[in-house]
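the two lines:
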Amino acid sequence: MTDRDTALTIAGLDKSYGRTPVLEGITIHLAPGERVALLGHNGAGKSTLIRLILGLTHPGAGTIRVVGHAPGSAAARAATAYLPEQVAFHKSLTGREQLTTFARLAGEHPRTVAPLLERVGLIDAADRRIGTYSKGMRQRLGLAQALLGRRRVALLDEPTSGLDPISRHDLYAVVDEMAANGTALLIASHALTELEARTDRIAIMAKGRLVADDSLVNLARAAALPTRIRLTARDGTADAVQAELGGDRKNGRTVELHCTTDQKMAQLARISALGDAVRDIEMVPPSLEDLYRHYCAELRP
Amino acid sequence: MIARLLAIAIAEFRIQTRNRWLASATVLMLLFALALTFAGSAPTGTLGVDLLTVAVASMTTLAVYLAPFLALMIAFDAVAGEAERGTLGLTLTYPLSRGEMLLGKFTAHLAVLAIAITLGLGAAGLAAWLAGGAGTESARALARLIATSILLGASFLALGYAASALSGSGAAAAGLAVGLWLVLVVLYDLGLLGALVFDQGGDFTKHIFPWLLAANPADAFRLWNVAGSQEVALISGMAGAGKALPGWAAPLSLFLWPVLALVLARAAFARVEP
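prediction for all of em together
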């Protein structure tokens, strides 16, 4: 794979502040149009990684290429969109003026501004000063600036913090639209349940290292986390069901089983053989949260 | 490059007018200039010069303190304040060089300063002319005063950026700016005065002192205004030092300072990691 095929290439990246290592040996590639969730505890190094990609700080070792360009170079910056976690603007400018300034900096015509404000639902507040905006509105303005021009890579740091559910939905609609246009997206977030359905790949960072980088399905298989099967037994048959299948009794009528992905079908056959004794069945595959705990726990002593 | 520089300049000029810096700087300049013009009108008769000449001499003394002060107050927030509020990081992710950003701000801030100085000193000059008359010579002295005040302000704007880029926070930058003002505008002269007294008219007084005077932008400003007009020199009593120097020394100093200070500010800004 050459630099041109990947939107973002990071290889063997190290960074330390003084003697404290913050990032160690980070290697990751993002293809155009790929949506990658970047997970990790506070202090795991997510924000440092983003700042390095933006060229705001410099690595101790390793390389970063943004569509083949060095981070911080004019070409790399023109190709990169960034939405900071705590997005801040000049509060005495209006939303329209601030976005027009960014448009000029990005080399875009100021007439691209109004449609973008419309797109993020800020057109009615466009001529009010940013000082009067709510946090959600500032976040929307931040999103609008990330949509300026044709960016090849977008770095979103906690994009849903401070957004209400409707706004979150809008945000992910924008994310999907950008991905469909070929922008590679790296989304750092804590909102695990949201990301599960919204990303193509999951990268998990712990203590400055990348401990996982794959699709949710592959990660689940590699981790061999069990699928939970919850059975609701007919009155009085719970004991018999447990005697037959094993598992844990949760209450008077519920039995919970754990099984790996390849045992799943065999287990289901045994359950259906019980006939009337089982009234209901619920299957819970390992969630992103389970996976996250699993991969972060591997590093603990 | 020009488009990006202008984008920063336009936004910055809007911010300065909205936060009322433009208005307060102009009013401050005007009030001080008017007060000095009319308070200093007493010696007109005795010296045989028009009121505008006296006003220009008074306003030269005023501008040497006020122009650097206003410039530093506008400039100290430029880097440290933006980094603190979190606006700098996002701006620097755009394809905009740090030099362009600095020059954009410089353009806007210099415009604010030029408007405040021209309106403030110009209005006081106009008032002096209406009240006590003016000649070609004194009108030229006023124009020179306005132009050199803007140049002096430009030096201190750039020094303010350097202070801002070297400081970790807006508060530290404000402190450093006040320190700069105190050293360059007040303490430097006191130090030279002390050395003169100690030297008792020896080689230092004759050969080194005039150059040290020209090396400081505030003193270069005084020298230029004094050297330009015999009458202003007469009133301000600073003619002696100016005569020992070639005519180009003070103007060169005043033109070089903004450039050197901008280079310094750019170098300091390069080390900032927002």
